[in-house]
Design a protein that fits this description.
heterodimer, A: Enolase-like, domain 1, 5-stranded antiparallel beta sheet, 12 helices, about 35% helix, B: alpha+beta, Ubiquitin-like (UB roll), DNA polymerase, domain 1, 5 helices, 5 strands, globular
Amino acid sequence: MKPPPFEYEAPRTADEAVALLTQHGDRAKVLAGGQSLVPLLNFRLARPEVLVDVNRAAELAYIRPVDTGLAIGALTRQHTVERSAAIRGQLPIVAEACRLIGHLPIRHRGTIGGSLAHADPASELPAVMVALEAELTAVRRGGRRTLPAEQFFTGIFTTALAPDELLTEIRVPGLPSRTGSAFVEIARRAGDFAIVGIAALVTLDDAGRVGRARLALCGVGPTPIRARQAERVLEGERPEGRALDEATDKIVAATDPPGDIHASAAFRKKLARHVGRQAIGLAARRAGGGS
Amino acid sequence: MKRSVSVIGLTVNGERHEVAVEPRRLLVDCLRDDLGLTGTHIGCEHGVCGTCTVLVDGESVRSCLMLAVQADGAAITTVEALASDGALHPLQQAFREAQGLQCGFCTPGMLLLAWELLRDHPAPSEGEIRETISANLCRCTGYQGIVEAIQLAAERHAVAPTTR
């Protein structure tokens, strides 16, 4: 179908966008890359009265170093992130996950901030940002706040953003040395949303034991799920054998998957174990200098 | 109130157009219905089939997932840009010879994906070709022919590479 009628605003700056959101409140919806919102408009599942199209606010598209790591502007296209030398060098898991989002024409338009604010439970970037302990900046008129990614996602397609707030920046802390990362997912076809996916970060000590592990899953609950008990099991151990078995048990225990036409809840749990084992192993190999 | 019609400027295949559109006008409908460029097909209207693929400022996008007002000021390439003076573009010729089309519905989108691929990667591997065209659906399931057509086009250097 075609979108229902709406009022259209195309602010040139983040401030203008925020002013419009303040003015229109929950009558308005932010249009970023449009790769999820426009289908919802075409299906008439979304009927916002006002669309605030932020695509002309070029100041929101950037990748720049900050003292703690990298800052990514919310409007940065997924394809730009995937190609960025800074991202590939410092946060390769972000590039690895971006490549799994849809297809090239989708990633040419789709933005980092849009994917996070849409908060599809099966999407890759929310889980990646939870694992990376990224901080998300939301701006409203007269103020801004910074939220840890884990607190940003509050439910299915639901975030902590208020109707008058705009997600402007994602700050990702740099990784400690000897840290390897991996994003592994199972999807029915290349480019589909994940049935189950996992972001794994493994930091090894000099003896090859896990100093720190961070694990976050998508597709197995209403929000990204951080598997903290699994992380604790790995820490102080070599990421193999019994420790790895126990960690994957804990990963499965952390999940609360839905059953739907794509996969039953039981099958999703089985897949969580599989991708968990694979991602931890891959991240550990990369931490040790492998690929 | 911005619901009213606004005039936008588009450069399509090198030709400048001014067109009055409602904000909710999809780019694909603007191209087809307002400009009469029906080479761009419309299928699913929700970003899955990819037959509406066009290039906006040189990058492939799904024109059913973009509003025409968002393309104001942009340069758009559609399948009509390929043939000239009634002669098929070498890429189209390769599709014809390798049977890269059956019913033809997906062909405009496939051609533009292939054009973009060969522009950016003049000698793609078979895997890269398959990954590229996995963006779009061919319900005749004629993918093999499409892959071979793109390989043939690559061998013949059918698309001039550009560094971007």
